[in-house]
Amino acid sequence: MALAVLRGNLAKLGVTAGFRIHGGSVGTVLRRMKPDAGAGFDVVFLDPPYDAAEEYSATLALLGGGLDWLLAEARW
Fold it and tell me: For residues 13 and 70, what is the distance between their CA atoms, to the nearest angstrom?
């Protein structure tokens, strides 16, 4: 449901290119992907359930673990 709302909001704003949306937990998506050289993320929206502290910590470890997930311009 949240992904449908997000996509609908982007469409209403006329935002049709320059982004990728990956559904699922951030940790799961990152584990499935391999970062491409120079093709990291500008923004990673990480909104885990607050009772999932272990998943939150594991995902932050993936993002900061030495792979090029984030572009140099990305903000923490």
Answer: 26
